[in-house]
Please model this.
Amino acid sequence: CTLRHLFKWWFLREDNDPESGEHHLDHVLANVFMLKHYSKAYVEGDNRPPKSAMFEMWLDDFCQTFDEKAYLERNPDIKAIVEARQAKEAS
Model:
């Protein structure tokens, strides 16, 4: 729920939740505060997955500045689509 509100605000540029009318960031803050309280008040309910080295590597990569050229080199299928669009737009 926290991520859904954060992503709608960040990626979709939607300020207010259409259902509640409240700002998405207010939902994020409320959810984070509830998670913090819950993690202390109900320790035995902690059902987070085990720590993942793969996720840590992904997160480190996620925080890097996006390098479109390197991304396209690593993803030749996407590169072909981009190049086809560019060729179509140029003609």
The helical segments are 2-10, 24-41, 53-62, 68-74, 76-90.
